[in-house]
Write a structure and sequence with these properties.
Elements lengths: L1 E9 L10 E10 L2 E10 L8 H7 L9 H5 L11 H12 L3 E4 L2 H15 L9 E3 H8 L7 H8 L11 H15 L40 H12 L6 H4 L2
Parallel strand pairs: 1-4, 4-5
Antiparallel strand pairs: 1-2, 2-3
């Protein structure tokens, strides 16, 4: 089963009011295990950055990236691609995989707005799994923010001084696995991708019978001693009636 853990950063709360996506971060899970494949893009929103949004993710009013990103060689969003240059690549990456998103309605409305403006297919709402809804159902009345869930599950989020799409996706992947019961939520060993019952390509792995039974570990002397002991128990012994 392929899943994509996804997060976005934006200029605000409402795409219909002119707000845009400025960052997308995704990572791939296969059978609830990270594969190492990611999708990450900073995006030029072609507009200014409100102070409120800057306080959340640190991508500033002048389109400068966060200090952490600047240290990695990034300078400005002005040189980053606009969404129409990455939208199809993004769709190709996610494919028909299940999308794991915290507060899915927020990210989905922005992604579908950007895709609509490009004339690209919308992402079906039922393709998304909302970890916020899962957390609220599992822990009713308790705080369900990503930070609160990290505290509940003992997940280190000390590097999350500001929101960042890829970092938040990595943290969310850990939270999601805890919410569904760990890396093997069904207590079944997950097969490697493409593994089959006979070790080749195809369906899921299944245990097979041994080609030959294991030899007995009881010696002839031990078996004879056991039989002699049972004979001494008399005819009413359960060991005799069940043989």
């Amino acid at each position: 089963m392929r899943e994509i853990v996804l997060d976005t950063e934006t200029t605000g709360f409402d795409p219909e009011a002119g707000d845009r996506i400025v960052e997308i971060g995704c990572l791939e899970l296969y059978n609830h295990m990270p594969t190492g494949k990611t999708f990450h893009e900073y995006i030029n929103p072609e507009r200014d950055m409100p102070d409120e949004a800057f306080g959340v993710h640190g991508i500033g009013p002048d389109l400068l990236l966060t200090p952490r990103a600047a240290q990695a060689g990034e300078v400005t969003l002005k040189d980053k691609p606009v969404f129409k240059l990455v939208g199809q690549v993004f769709l190709d990456f996610i494919g028909d995989a299940r999308l794991v998103i915290h507060n899915a309605s927020f990210d989905m409305k922005f992604l579908n707005a950007e895709l609509k403006w490009m004339g690209l297919p919308q992402i079906p709402w039922e393709q998304a799994t909302d970890t916020l809804a899962i957390a609220r159902k599992k822990f009713p009345g308790a705080p369900a923010s990503l930070d609160a869930l990290c505290r509940r599950f003992g997940i280190d989020n000390s590097s999350r001084t500001l929101h960042g799409a890829l970092l938040d996706s990595e943290i969310l992947a850990e939270v999601y696995l805890e919410l569904i019961g760990g890396r093997q939520p069904d207590l079944v060993l997950a097969p490697e991708q493409g593994a089959s019952s006979d070790g080749g390509a195809g369906g899921a792995w299944r245990p097979q019978p041994r080609p030959a039974p294991l030899p007995s570990r009881i010696s002839k002397e031990e078996a004879a001693a056991h039989d002699a002991f049972v004979e001494k128990l008399g005819d009413g012994a359960i060991w005799k009636t069940c043989r």
